[in-house]
Amino acid sequence: EHDIIEINDTSSTQIVITYTGDDRRKLVQRPSIGSMFVLVIRVSDDTDSTGRKKVAQSASKLNDDIFNWRNNNLKMVYKKCSDNKLQIKPAQGNGIMKGVIDLKAPSNICSMTYQEVGNWAFSQNEVSSLFTSGSYAKITHKMIIMPNAKSSNGQGCVDFRGGAAWGQVNRSITWFQSKSASYPAVQVHEFGHNLGMKHSGAPDSNGNFKEYLDGNGYMGNRAIWDEEGSNMCFNAAKMWYFQWWSSFHKTVWVSSTIQSAKLIPLADVKKDRYVSGSNMLLQVPSTDSTLYMIFNRAKGVNEGVRADANKVVITEQNGRTVVSKWKAALGRGESYRQGNWNGSGKTLVVKVTDIDYGSYADIADLQIYFEGTAPDVSSGCEDIVPRGRNKWYDADGADYDCDWYANKASNCASYGDQYSNFGMTANEACCACQ
């Protein structure tokens, strides 16, 4: 793995599995859940009198800045945003001290690119021995910290090709220059690339799309650039694909009727404050555009969000490892429209009908429909919601809820009397199956 390192490797690391037939049992890839052991490789010449070849942070400070219980470092952002489903831990192995291993920089480091420094580090016995068959090291990811980037005025050392840091997409290596290695804005962003996430973009003041401009999460470039960072997580699309809160996902397929949804913010979900029928993340899919929605309440873990606080934010992302695009931020009474939805010639409307800042939980009420649709008042049926849950789903998990059964006519007939959960099957819990 360490002989060739490609920074923009975005196509060769995904596994695509095609299912044929009608088998509902699917493999689910969840690379962003579980324990991840990070090896920090500090490449520095601490004796260099010019200071150009030095990493300013000691090994002890890097351990503190990355792994300790600070408010917004790499460990804590992923811990808080995932509700501890993703745990960042110091790597273990021979010569590793609290997750960090020290290497004296080569004399010619200032003539090297960041990738060449990384390749050199992996070739050193202290590091390469950790990856031999006889090693008992625990390492899943590698962060290489090196002297600052060379600048046009002759300062710095390593050629960073114009970047503050770099991260492999869907792989395991990140590269940092010293001056940004302790910033959560950079740590969390680059590690997000390792987890398969690309950037979060938004239009600028002239309406031109900018790939880093979304301030609703760490995959944009709007977090505070200091050692404290920002109290926030990720936008709706990234949070959906991370799968940390899949029990609070809801998919809405736009139909001939007005459909309603309730969104509650992450801070309330984390405290088990939710009301019947509410969700945290909403997906509205089609063949050519998939929208994701979140109530971007600025409180708790998200109190420092850098844009669109206390709005329902709509993001478009058409696949897991894809750049997301900010589409709208809606307050009470505001609507978003997208024409020719799914090639239908009809205009999709997402409307926020109410936002209630309650003493128990905050709630945003939405309606999703085609423009011109009249309310359907013919049916009084409501899906059954088990006590203590926000929705019913079958024994295979939260993806198989009443919306899943409603999405395909044969689902109720094929599976409606199977996979009982919470004491009932889909035929008993879901209006679509009755």
Contiguous runs where pLDDT drops below 50 for at least 5 residues: 1-30
Mean pLDDT: 89
Largest sheet: 7 strands, mixed
The global form is elongated
Question: What portion of the residues fall into strands of 2 or more residues?
Answer: 15-25%
Topology order in helix (H) and strand (E) letters:
EHHEEHHEEEHEEHEEHEEEEEEEEHHH
Give a short summary of the structure.
The protein has 434 residues and is α/β, with parallel strands linked by helices. The protein has helices at 59-67, 74-82, 114-123, 125-128, 184-194, 236-242, 266-270, 402-407, 409-415, 426-429; strands at 34-44, 86-90, 100-104, 141-146, 165-167, 173-177, 200-203, 209-210, 249-251, 259-263, 278-279, 281-284, 291-295, 312-316, 324-330, 335-338, 348-357, 362-370.
Write the layout of secondary structure elements.
Layout: E1 34-44, H1 59-67, H2 74-82, E2 86-90, E3 100-104, H3 114-123, H4 125-128, E4 141-146, E5 165-167, E6 173-177, H5 184-194, E7 200-203, E8 209-210, H6 236-242, E9 249-251, E10 259-263, H7 266-270, E11 278-279, E12 281-284, E13 291-295, E14 312-316, E15 324-330, E16 335-338, E17 348-357, E18 362-370, H8 402-407, H9 409-415, H10 426-429
Parallel strand pairs: 1-2, 1-3, 1-4, 4-6, 7-15, 9-12, 10-11
Antiparallel strand pairs: 5-6, 7-8, 10-18, 12-13, 13-14, 14-15, 16-17, 17-18
